[in-house]
Predict the 3D structure of the following.
Amino acid sequence: MIQPLPSDLITVNVDGKDIAVPKGTNMIEAARLASVEVPHYCYHPKLTISGNCRMCLVEMGLPAVDPATKAPLMDPATGKQKINWMPRPTIACATNASPGLHIRTNTAAVQDCRNSVTEFLLINHPLDCPICDQAGECKLQEHSTAYGRGYSRFVEQKNVKPKRTQLGPRVTLDDERCILCSRCVRFSKEVAQDDVLGFIDRGSYSTLTCYPGKQLANNYSLNTVDLCPVGALTSTDFRFKMRVWFLKQTPSIDCESSVGANTEVWSREGVIYRITPRQNDAVNDTWMADSGRVLYKAVQAADRLSRASLNGVPTTQEKALQAAVDLLSGRGGRVAAGSVNGVAVVGSGSSTVEEQFLTRKIADKLKAPVALVSRVDTGDKILVSADRNPNTRGALVTGLICALPEQKLSALSAAIEAGQVQVILSIGEDLIAAGLTAAQLAKVAVIYLGTHQNATSTVAQVVIPTLTVFEKAGTLVNQQFRLQKFVRAVPGLGGVSDDLVSLSHLLNALGGSTLGSTLGALWPVIAAEVKVLAHTTYDTLPSTGLLLDSATWAGLPFIEGETLHFKPVTAVGVKS
Amino acid sequence: MNLQPTTLQKIDEVITHYPVKRSATLPLLHLVQEDLGWISPEAMEWIAAKLELQPINIYEVVTFYPMFRQKPIGRRHIKVCRTLSCALTGGYKVCAEFQKQFGSQPGAVSADGEVTIDFVECLASCGTGPVVMIDDDLHVKVDLARAQQLSAQIKAGAKARSTP
């Protein structure tokens, strides 16, 4: 009998086991909740159902009722309601669970369906997994192992189709491997809103292609590569670079905008090979932008800062830090001894929460004003927002800034012109790109902590190299005020200290209390001082992030427009 | 797109027959092919815009049906049946005769642009083979003499048009 359940849950029976699932769950998801795998290719939880691969065929039964009275028909042998099993199998992806639904996935008939579907899919599929780039993460390979017959009965000639079509600047297609599941077609239409893919010459020669003269060039094209259950769509960048089973996966965050898409960084022996999205249903579903996938190239870029330098001359990290302390504390000759009034701090919306916290402490110690550099571009309404700083909210949460950053560093610019600033401490920000002129920088001493060379690092008195987001761990606060953590994927560049080590050294040398330079040591301090982060620790932060109480900043005119899973709260008096 | 006003009128009319515009894809393709003789890339894009779709959606349909022509066609379309009955009664010879008369290959437009000769499957007049269809007119029992006669008629028609 069906037990009534309090909420929207209904009871279904999967392979003889009763389980409560939400109403409207399809049979694949219901089985998943019962820890039963229903193999599938075309079904994807974030796309519409097309039901074309037929791999998810299962047996389905419904509780029997008397046709006239609708009274349950009982089975006298068991005392339970009879189940009317459908004479033919059903596709699990396109059937929603109804109360009392029975699913059988382990019968000979279901096994037979899977074997037959697999055999048909393999008729024209090249049997060359050893040279296929998808091997190791290929659904067809996995399911063929489980449901394939191990040898082919097909003695005819296989179809010949285009082998390496450039569908767009980043995606290469091998049409022979395509099993026509249409996930990529549906993704392009439904998520990327760029309906360029389709099947032509339908029949034995069905071919995935773009309309002649068009390209799969949108900024989400590489998601089709992730979606592809076989080796048909491959990333032109990653193709044939590395076997996936050699790669280590590290959870990370996409730092290109304040969306903070969750990512997976794939590396081997300290070298990153690719970045793919990591599912977070509250932020990015299973997608990310193509532009965020190439950010790892910055790690080994030619213009990477690898050594500390003093007035352009390479030096040791210790000497550079000492010189920075001298400048900041007034012993460097630029500011009158004992007076630290002439120092300004330029913080960064790209820094982690922990770095911003230490930056705030340093600024407090120096009684220095703090400016933040804003990065504004147009958002694409999907997963790239208008605010290209990944952690503007973090700067607000840690108290590094109280108001949103201005477009150009005009206040700092005016202060330099007025002779009020003699030393600038820049945490990873290119001051010239941020609106100061070279002439203004010539008037002051610049201490630059950053990852790459730029106009500011070349004129800075003190340059201290820092690590990219892939080489350190930390947290960021995205546009939803969701605190998300990322983990170190690869070791830092040789001879470069962690940002937290450099910052806490500066703080200590300037006379601040010892706060620690590791996440484990810092978080108790942060949790104690920052109200909205109370009781939070890095280690216990869930992988999907933690939504912070944003009431304090509700009135600020944030610039983000609507994106996936984010609707801006329009503050009073703010024009959209 | 150089469509006749009557075609445009029919297109606008037929779109209203369906609850969603996309459903009018096939009727529109038929109307355009009737008017222009073939479906050009320009026509696919025009239809896509007309139905608020992307060109790929139309392209998928056009490539599915063999009778949508993706290449231009001659002024007259000569379709010679090659299914069993007609093949036995000499359909291939008839086709060869037409090719000789117009100096063109099956599927290609003749040099003067007058005809396209194609083999087709059964035209449903198996007792009277070989059967040939020229545009919408069915010609039965087409032997070599009849083929020459039909060719002469087409040529005469072309000549009459070129010398008004």
Notes: Chain B has two domains: 5-64, 76-162. Chain B touches chain A through ten residues (CB under 8 Å).
